[in-house]
Amino acid sequence: MRWKNAALLALAVLAAGCSSTDKKELPPAELPKFEREVSLKTQWSRSIGDGQGDTYNMLVPAVDGERIFAADVEGLVMALDRLTGKVIWKQNLKTPVSGAVGAGYGLVLLGTLKGEVLALDADSGEEKWRAKVNSEVLAAPATNGDIVVVQTQNDTLYAFEAYSGNQRWVFDNTPAVLTLRGSGSPVLTNNLAIAGLSTGKVLALDTARGLPIWEQRVAVPQGRSELERIVDIDGGLLLSGGIVYAVSYQGRLAALDLSSGRILWERQASSAMGLAQGYGSVYVSEAEGTLVGVDERSASALWSNDSLQRRKLSAPAVISSYVLVGDLEGYLHLLSQVDGRFVGRERIDSAGLRAQPVVAGEWIYAYGNGGKLVALTIQ
């Protein structure tokens, strides 16, 4: 428990950008001026209760078909028509939500601070089942239609039957001594459940029995103090074309072969937010506020934009020829995938924009910390 409390403190310190020295903390970089090339048009906006809350949740919405599902920290879950914003249903779970939202195969999936996994009917919002796990759930559960897999804060992986909630298997991992408060959502294929761990490893399990297929270390803890040795893979994994991309805090960005876990390439990086992919590149929001575009074939940096230092960037997303990223003041920034230059900007929520933007077709969905969910298109 002492280490768990220390982990929460560590996240607060690191998220604030504080130094381990006595140097005065630098303020967030001022927004750079640029010549606007594109505009964002708001198509609709809705309030989703209390939004992300004060415990650094990442309640990213989920799109499934023509609906978008979103939840707030207090347990309000809403299903909306993603093109009109019309409310289809809302459900008050009356329990704090910390891992949201997974959606697919007729299910809406959430995790709670009380160590529960909930499955709702996507058409009605009715609770279909609820299962208990051994720790809080800080990322969305994932499903492939057969099973639901969830990763807990202490790196345990659980698999439940998708439509009954019966436990199929559980796989225990020993977490790092000191970790950030967070974890990524597992990535599922028909045969594999893949997860990034607080120890800097990526693990692939057989979905049928939960047996390990391969394990690969992405980051090696370094430094004298436990703070310096934090190498969590918290931002989630990215699967594209048979390659798994993973990035760790104070570690590396790596490309792994899906079937074997073999490292195809790696480069130094530090991020706890996650990745995006497009135009033959992988994009990462680094911890200090630099957005980097990396060639997915060679690991070479194609461009780097450091104009958003200390602005606590969200994970990036990709739409058309642009990269999207949010910041602590609630701005959604658009950058060119070609060279990383700014091409557009829109303020979404003055409380901040921590959750990764969601892209579906030509639509962008941004969910602000204060609970404002906005649908936008590029003009």
TrEMBL record:
One of its GO terms (cellular component) is cell outer membrane. The keyword Plastid does not apply. It is a lipid-anchor. GO terms for biological process: Gram-negative-bacterium-type cell outer membrane assembly; protein insertion into membrane. Residues 74-305 form the Pyrrolo-quinoline quinone repeat domain. It is found in: Cell outer membrane. InterPro entries: BamB (IPR017687), PQQ_b-propeller_rpt (IPR018391), PQQ_rpt_dom (IPR002372), Quinoprotein_ADH-like_sf (IPR011047), WD40/YVTN_repeat-like_dom_sf (IPR015943). Part of the Bam complex. Belongs to the BamB family. This is Outer membrane protein assembly factor BamB. It comes from Pseudomonas mangrovi.
